[in-house]
Design brief:
The chain is of the alpha/beta class. It has 2 domains: 2-317, ABC transporter type 1, transmembrane domain (ABC transporter transmembrane region fold), CATH 1.20.1560.10; 339-581, 3-Layer(aba) Sandwich (Rossmann fold), CATH 3.40.50.300. The protein is 63% helix and 10% strand. The chain has 20 helices and 12 strands. The protein has helices at residues 2-11, 17-50, 55-104, 107-112, 115-140, 142-157, 162-206, 208-213, 217-270, 276-317, 384-389, 414-420, 435-439, 448-457, 461-465, 484-497, 514-527, 540-543, 563-569, 571-581, and strands at residues 339-346, 361-368, 373-378, 399-404, 407-408, 421-424, 433-434, 474-475, 502-506, 532-537, 548-553, 556-561. The protein is elongated and about 120 Å long. The N and C termini lie far apart (77 Å).
Length: 586
Amino acid sequence: MQNILRFMQAVRQIPGVTKRFIISQLLLLGWVVFQLLIPFMIRTLIDQGINAGNIEVVARTALWMVLFAFISAVLLSVAAGYSVGFAVQAAHGLRVVVYRKVQNLSFGNLDRFQTSDVLVRLTNDVNIVKQMVMMGNFYLFRAPFMLIGAVALVFIASRAFFPIIVAVLVITGILLYIYARYAEPLFRVVQVKVDLLNRVLQENLAGVRVVKAFIRAEHEMKRYNERNLVLKKISIKPARLMAFLEPGVYLTFNLATAAALYFGGVSIVQGTGITTGDIVTFNDYLYLVIAPLVMVIIVLPMLARGEVSMNRLFQVLDAEADVREKADAQPLGEIKGRVVFENVTMSYLDDNGRPNPTPVLKNINLTAEPGQTVAILGATGSGKSTLVNLIPRFYDVTAGRVTIDGIDVRDVKLADLRQKVSIALQQAILFSGNVQENIRYGRPEATQAEIEEVAKAADAHAFISSHGDGYNRRVAREGANFSGGQRQRISLARALAVKPKILILDDTTSAVDVATETRIQEALTKVAKGVTTFIVAQRISTTIIADNIILLENGEIVAQGKHKDLLASSPLYREIYESQLGKLEE
């Protein structure tokens, strides 16, 4: 319930939502008033019209009932429209807030949040909350007014039947408590199982080529069916609770009706003052007491699921970014591009936000002078990508510091820092749109001439121009209509288009052939002249041109220097060279 209250407080900040909510509630309140008046009119029609033989009273009362029914229908219809509008607007605002939060989270947070989990929260969980808000606003908020009004009018108009109403409230209250007590934990488990099912589905869709290549479709189908079966079994449990609750409420209603007819009938026969109109009116008010409880039954599953979904959404909203900008962060003006790592140790955070005991980088000391090219070489898992990710503050150091022109990167505004640092990743991501938009992504104001210049430097201009649409060629989902090497070259062009002072190439040419890589290296010496460049690589051929080569092993620098010097001084570097390019002549 706490999450629902937090949500209601949050949606009040969305423009127009409060107005829609208030209008819908006023309309529903008007509907409740008319519904509560109709049983009084029925009693008048029966006792003063039918039983008294007064046709005029029958006709007049019937006309008023028709008018009230028409007004009630109009009020309910308009209220439903406002309720839907309120729910849709609230869901839209919630989706925007959660998406903005995800965008502001650091890499460490996103490492801990599974991609499939975030997708489910932004889609499935937000839709569940929308349904809960719509149903809750339309049914739940009018239920108390109707319930209190009906009970009060029974006490005033048919006090002899009041004990029956009290018994109904006690029994249904117990039933509703049992349902609420056990349903929410079950829905929480259901959402966890939905996440697991979606995770399997996402992995299969992302790796469909691997699945087909290794003929593992049957295996993956079995995995999916197992998760799906678990979801089915756990989903049955809250449904069984509902199957127990709803018949119990209707049984209570029917028993109460039977009790009213029995005691009322006996009273009429004995002439104790109860009229036929009193019995009919009580039965109408009994329905108006049960109706809100039925509304609660309808909404309770949505409330239980909505509470779970909101809890999951608030897990994202409450997450503190691992990398946060200081309140007094300074702008980063023009820089020369001198990068220094001073006694840097870095550990990734665990799920509880605490540094892992085994650091990924240990006591790194490294200086890159303005305009220098620094290559970082090492085996998989040696800490190469982690090292360069510290420069734009994708992660923060655990100890030591990283400076640019003597300024600690933690002391400057993140936007300014990342405008000066550009990165091209090994896993090149292309966005929907066209090639031109992808290259211009980091600098929308780039001219066509500038786009073509960086595309030529990335050896991408030729294959882009060879297509009929050229730079307007559409990019399929995740760049599926381009090869891995083409995607990498477009990604490199995108990084160059920013005109950075510090350029990071994280294994950017791993998917291109040696000849293409050589052309790219030659072009980069011109386009990236004066730019401090970090090259992360597995291949020796990529690092030979560097002014300084860093050899990483288990998160530590074990050797550094120029290519020729390392061949002479580092057995490990020489071993890597010979394994890739052949044995050196003595």
